Amino acid sequence: MNALKRHRELDAIWASEKGWTGWFSTVNHSDLGRMFLVLAFFYFAVGGILSMLIRAQLATPHSAFAGPEVYNQIFTMHGTIMMFLFAIPAIEGLAVYLIPKLLGTRDLAYPRLTAYGFWCYAFGGAMLLFSLFAGIAPDGGWFMYPPLTGPLHSPGINTDFWLIGITFVEISAICAAVELTVSILKYRAPGMSLDKMPIFAWYILVTALMILTGFPPLILGSVLLELERAFGLPFFQTDLGGDSLLWQHLFWLFGHPEVYIIFLPAAGIVSTVLPVMARTTLLGYGWVVAAIVALAFLSFGLWVHHMFTTGIPSLGVAFFSAASTLVAVPTAVQIFAWIGTLWKGRPDLRLPMLYILGFFLTFVIGGLTGVMVAIVPFDWQVHDTAFITAHLHYVLFGGFVFPLLAGIYYWLPLFSGRQRFFRLGEIAFALVFAGFHGTFLAMHWVGLLGQRRRIHTYDADAGWTAINLFSSVSSFILAIGLAMVLVDVILNLFVAVRGKRNPWNAGTLEWATMAPPPSYNFASLPEISSRDPAHADPGLPNRIAGGEGYLGQPRGTLRETLTVDIASGRPDYVVRYPANTRLPITLAAVTGLFFLSLLVKVYWIVPIALIGVVLLACRWVWGLGQRVDEGPVPVGRGVSLPPAAETAKSPGWWGSVFLLIADATFFGSLIFGYAFLWTIAPGWPPPEWLQPLAPELAAGVGGAVAAAVLMRLTIRRNADGRPARITCLLTLAAMGMLGVAVATMTGRVPAPTGHAYGAALLVVGGYGMLHIALAALMLGFLSVRIAAGYVSVTRKAELHIVRLWVDYAAATGVICLLIAHVPVLLT
Amino acid sequence: MSDVIRILIAPLVWLACFGAIYGLHGLSCSATFEPDLPAGAAIWQLLMILAGGVAVTVQVCLLFALRHRAFASGSGFVNRVSAILAWTSLAATLWTSFPVLLSSSCA
């Protein structure tokens, strides 16, 4: 088969539906990556327009441009859109588009999940955008502190849009994080061991793990605050045993890692683009990997530094001040690695390099002001002033937008297959750089002079007028610069002349395929022996196109790729992907109906939407797997590998592991919140405790142990070739016993609207019951699958996936019961 | 997966210890758990110093374990990165536990 015939056959297998209707059914990562990026930059434009409105308002004292109510919505939506609808989705989009190409594979681990995540983002974002245009947008600031955002002080629907809309959008981030983690660990070109992974993949891997552990506390906080607003459960009301400080803990447990979730992928772009621009390799690859991991962990130990002025004890402040200064070290390791890379190379001052230099200057200033605010006495002085706003923008715009623009220009020839012709970009860079520093340097200054953040007006005699005017004029220059970038990119995407492959002479795999890449990415999967395969083997693109790698012979209509052993990169299984489908958009729409019914408080729709989600999820999973044992299939180069369904650790198992890590973080945050209220909140002890009930506890523990044991028995019976359906149903019965125990406990909690104790136990019990119901549903589904012939001695993947969920439900169910019983006994 | 855990384990232990010491501090300052003994405050501070000491000891043990042949990975890269992170985590533990020696205030 020649290269052209192979291309035609593969494209027929992998391509999306033609025309605009294909947007709704595509599961191709390149399409979805582009859709993410376009929508994210649309929101960047919306957020940018809102920032112009803020600066118009603040340009002069006593401005009548916007009243306080409108102004509150503008700055809240500016922050919310930039954080949740631009920065994170832009990273997701870039990673979704690039990661399979960098790793030398054909798609991400779960193509339909990519599509589902995108549509959740699109629908959730539309919900928030609607609130903005309807004049009912959130107005409590992007971090939504109660009691301001509680039912007493913000009774309207504005805050609900934020809590429900953001939770909906965060489904997208969790989906992308699971997807990217599994893809990077398992879906790589054969031979690509951990030390040969492109550095960008390391950054995205760590970022994805951070999303999995950073977002759940915010989701929990949003759920608790919405429960308080909708049903009166007083988690944040001091007089009823709640504490508004709990929100700050939960929010910043998310919020500080969020800064690094945004920064790290951008740093990944710098670490990828800089060596290419300097015509060398990255200095200290291993040190940079260690610095990324260290930075990720340290970022989770900093959250209280946003709370230095809340009156927490001085020892607590000292812990977090120490941790905050420490985080500068791994950041500095990366910066020195970049400087060293420049030093050993021969830098070429092309447009991506200009943005990287802009990043250096801006981010270093932002980092240094970060160290300043880590020092407690200084933070007390500048807290909630424009200095903090300026610092935040130096870190986020400097640390994210500059590298992102460098990345956009660097990968533009790959996106478009064209060479850059129009030269607006250099002028745009000058405007962006000058406009940004004019805007935010001035804001540091006015902050030090005492201007608070989020004020809608100020007196003329405050001495801030000239500085604010200068800042506002500069911000419009910045906006003009960004608009020019947009025009430049659009012109070069659609009008410029065709370019050659790999115009930068880069060494990574995305340049070893066609530009723009075909729907299947690689005609055959290459064997990798170097971190820069395109440099190590200049003939690689031709060999890939010629089908000399793995899976070079298309098989029927199967969309196939390989998974590898995590550490060594040795190929281990063949994966078959599902085809194009409208299931993801339908499921996202029904999920949206669930959130929308909560938002507008039409609660009778909620169970209908939930049943819809369950049915569609069953439909989603039913299409996977096969009814016959296949055994190893030839994948080329004389190698045969078994299909992924014939392993215990299938892609679904890996996805479940990482999803459960996020779930466990949510549960851990819930336990933290309960313990925090118990020990710190005033208004405790509650007027009434839950009475311990030994039979309830015994039944629950017995059911959990029985479920775990019976599930293992099911797996063993299947492995021995004996019928497994009966033990599967017995596992379901044991899970039911645990469910009854947890439900009884939940039904007995003291009045949940009367005190935070009862409210917290209600949520703990609800969490336990939800997971028991989920495990029961899976067990029921599994018994049907066994009866339908989808499980055999060889095809055992589904058993092991269900075992994970059964174990998790059993463990959390028991913990829920212990949480309710043990502290009362101790008290 | 074991190689990924080898890379992540030392900073993960740092984070767990940091959280535990901060939690212990929260308990020491909470009204619910305020000890009736006159030397209650001193006991809590002693506990926190002890917790800091345990955290440092655990990190030192981890450092030795990760460098020991019995626990080594087949990948030199993984060994190198996990060693760097073990040293980093030890330094982080020392640095972030240091305040327990200097301050005992719940004010």
From TrEMBL, chain A:
Signal sequence coordinates: none
Enzyme Commission (EC) number: 7.1.1.9
Top enzyme category: translocase
Compartments in which it is found: Cell membrane
Gene3D superfamilies: Cytochrome c oxidase, subunit III, four-helix bundle, Cytochrome c oxidase-like, subunit I domain
Membrane spanning residue stretches: 35-54, 74-98, 118-137, 161-187, 199-225, 259-278, 285-305, 317-342, 354-378, 390-412, 424-446, 466-495, 579-596, 602-622, 657-677, 697-715, 727-745, 757-784, 805-826
Catalytic activities: 4 Fe(II)-[cytochrome c] + O2 + 8 H(+)(in) = 4 Fe(III)-[cytochrome c] + 2 H2O + 4 H(+)(out)
Stated family: Belongs to the heme-copper respiratory oxidase family.
PANTHER family to which the protein is assigned, alphabetical: CYTOCHROME BO(3) UBIQUINOL OXIDASE SUBUNIT 1, CYTOCHROME C OXIDASE SUBUNIT 1
Protein name per its UniProtKB record: cytochrome-c oxidase
Membrane topology: Multi-pass membrane protein
PROSITE patterns per UniProt: COX1 (PS50855), COX1_CUB (PS00077)
Annotated keywords: Cell membrane, Copper, Electron transport, Heme, Iron, Membrane, Metal-binding, Respiratory chain, Translocase, Transmembrane, Transmembrane helix, Transport
Record has Translocase as a keyword: yes
Main location group: membrane
Domain Cytochrome oxidase subunit I profile: 14-529
Pathway: Energy metabolism; oxidative phosphorylation
Keyword Transferase: no
UniProtKB/TrEMBL annotation, chain B:
Record's keyword annotation contains Transmembrane: yes
Top-level taxon of the source organism: Bacteria
Keywords: Membrane, Transmembrane, Transmembrane helix
Residue ranges of the TM segments: 42-65, 77-98
Protein name per UniProt: Transmembrane protein
Protein source organism: Roseovarius pelagicus
Lineage per the UniProt record: Bacteria, Pseudomonadati, Pseudomonadota, Alphaproteobacteria, Rhodobacterales
